[in-house]
Specification:
By secondary structure, the chain is mainly alpha-helical. The protein has one domain: Lysozyme. It is built from seven helices and two strands. A hairpin with a 2-residue loop joins strand 1 and strand 2. The longest helix has 33 residues.
């Protein structure tokens, strides 16, 4: 987890240097952050037992404003979670949201949220959550976010993440082809 945070901090500082030379920097920055962290972030989430890690990665990017939000930077809150009386990972509140000792505690709180509310939802509604779409619908029905367009915003993030995967795959194939042609 520390390695990921160090890499994230490096990118956040490094992007100022790149900003001057790129025309549409906000889009490029977003693609770069997703490219650099998407696979490793999803792998980390999967290892920690997070369900629907692609959606959860999209939530992290959205909720933290690409790791720049005040609630994330000062409250270690990756998910915009409110403090819960039932879950005990938060150490207080910051700007109306749960404040955590570190980002790991924020992740563990989210995992506990999933482990508590997904089974209840499935039992109450007689359904199983199998897909990212199902999970996004679950979040909306649980009123996870105050934003009524939260589902649409997560879908945009998922599309962006998929776009980055396609670009990276194409770049990787081009590099392999160039290497093959040189030899």
């Amino acid at each position: 987890m520390r390695n990921i945070l160090l890499i994230l901090l490096f990118i956040l500082f490094f992007h100022d240097f790149l900003k001057e030379s790129l025309e549409d920097f906000k889009h490029v920055e977003m693609l770069r952050v997703i490219t650099d962290y998407d696979d490793s972030l999803e792998a980390l989430l999967r290892r920690k037992g997070v369900k629907f890690e692609e959606v959860v990665a999209a939530q992290i990017f959205h909720e933290t404003g690409m790791l720049k939000s005040d609630v994330y930077l000062n409250g270690n809150n990756m998910f915009g979670m409110k403090q819960s009386k039932k879950r005990h990972w938060a150490i207080g509140t910051y700007a109306g949201h749960a404040k955590y000792r570190n980002v790991s505690d924020s992740l563990y709180d989210y995992i506990e949220y999933q482990n508590t509310y997904i089974p209840r939802y499935e039992q109450r509604h007689g359904v199983k959550i199998h897909t990212n779409e199902d999970y996004i619908n679950f979040l909306m029905r649980q009123n996870y976010a105050e934003d009524r367009k939260y589902d649409l915003k997560l879908k945009v993030w998922l599309e962006r993440m998929e776009e980055v995967r396609r670009v990276e795959k194409r770049n990787h194939e081009n590099r392999n082809q160039q290497h093959f042609l040189k030899n």
